[in-house]
Amino acid sequence: MFYYVYVLQSSKDNKWYTGCTEDLRKRFKQHNDNGVFSTKNRGPFKLIYYEACVDRHDAFVREKYLKTGMGKRYLKNRLKRFLVLTG
Prior knowledge:
87 residues; alpha+beta
């Protein structure tokens, strides 16, 4: 079993949302169906990045890191080609 750390981009406001889940497909659908309080009415979303972890704790630590300033810089650097194409 894997645990996923993911980043969604809102098509409405272009802002990113970072989360963690055991079932990425189910969670992505929940976000797009307005079933998640923190992203309600911000969809539709695009999945722009994800990582898979074997350990649940590692996934949640990684999620927390990606929400920091350093983590956001990492993501922007990692996704720079995507950002140029969608810019």
